[in-house]
Amino acid sequence: MKIKRVTFNNHKAQLELTVYSGKTYPVPYARLDPAPSSKNPLQTVYVDPELGRQGVTYVLASGAEGAVHIDHALEYNQDPSTLAELFTHKLTIEARKRVANCGLSRRELARRLHTSVPQLYRLLDPANARKRIQQLVSLLHLLDCEVELVVKARRVA
User: Fold this and answer.
1) Distance in angstroms (rounded) separating the CA atoms of residues 117 and 129
2) pTM over 0.90, yes/no
3) Domain regions of the chain by residue span
4) pLDDT-flagged residues of the chain (< 70)
5) What whole-number distance in Å separates Cα of residue 132 and Cα of residue 29?
6) Residue 103 gets which letter from DSSP?
7) What is the distance, to the nearest Å, from the Cα of residue 144 to the centroid of all Cα atoms in its chain?
8) Fewest C-beta atoms under 10 Å: which of 89, 95, 136, 155?
9) Whole-angstrom Cα distance, residue 142 to residue 37?
């Protein structure tokens, strides 16, 4: 996810990272290292091309520099789509481990899943975020795994 622009809001004491989809993710100054303060305020902040436009760099009045990656903003804001992608990624990594140790050929796994071998490779690709959890659960079931989903209330700090 690439950042389109960044602004800082001293009234709210936060950086505001806007991505190309238009969504804005705030990051409080308290989460920055080094953190701006009234005695050492932000001087400049910019989307950093050296970070592949996936991060911003900021400079404080003292000359101290810091950076914030978009992943940090997504984690702080607990973006639902990011959390779903993380869940899918964890299932994919587990499926890859199990496939490597199962002793079945990729062709046999694909046949038993009623799909093609290329589709199986896409399913096992951690970089592919466009897959359904149902496919991963079916694959893990085929590999003699039991998948349980536990829903708990978050602890409020």
Assistant:
1) 18
2) no
3) 3-77, 80-142
4) 156-157
5) 37
6) -
7) 29
8) 155
9) 55
